[in-house]
Amino acid sequence: LSICSRTVEPLEYYRRFLKENCRPDGRELGEFRTTTVNIGKCLCSITTADGSALVKLGNTTVICGVKAELAAPAVDSANKGYIVPNVELPSLCAERFRSGPPGEEAQAASQFIADVIENSQMIVKEDLCIANGKLAWVLYCDIICLDYDGNLLDASVFALLAALKNVQLPLVTINEETGLSEVNLKQKNPLIIRKHPVATSFAIFDDTLLIVDPTAEEEDLATGTVTIVTDEEGRLCSVHKPGGSPLTGAKLQDCITRAITRHKEIKKLIDKVIKSITPK
Fold first, then answer.
1. pTM for this structure?
2. What is the CATH number of domain 28-277?
């Protein structure tokens, strides 16, 4: 298979591999790229964040920083805090992105992350309330892609989860006499993570063939994509399918089954990293 055919006829080039149940990078159709995660103090990059993580999925590299601030709860949600996710795709991560306001892909990714947080109940907003109607935590979750080579959503959800697992919030009380908040930086508690959502993305080739963890090139050649989000109980939290080829019920079930397996792999990886950085 010559490089020329990959440049001139990339889809035909891919089809010749897919017929043999493999891909140009040597992976099987259901095989993920090497996945690594660094959490918190393993990162020198975001010293100002209350929690941070760097995730690599093959060449795709995503960093997440979580910043916690205090604010008054909304009038109609007096017992809830806020979670504000934001995905950035700067021009440095790939030629396809431009500097300036968030593009369509970045906005769609931010909305996807917000939906995952809401649907999975990974963080219950009531847990972020300090004093009903008076004070609550706001978690600003900035997810920045440093190198884009496909499958942004899987890497972003993983980086978000890893960064949130690393957050330590100081004890905050309200002085009854003055009505002012008092922050005790010496007494910190981890954030309550109630669920651990993991995303698993697939590209659909020629309307029927499913490949997991697509590269940017594979995404461009695919006739559609689908992302399945599950939690540790195997519960389906989200199915994200932005148009493209339809999926049969059987194919969708295949995706869900693979996503549940992937969840176990990611959970094991994150637990191992957290254990390695936890003081003995």
1. 0.92
2. 3.30.230.70
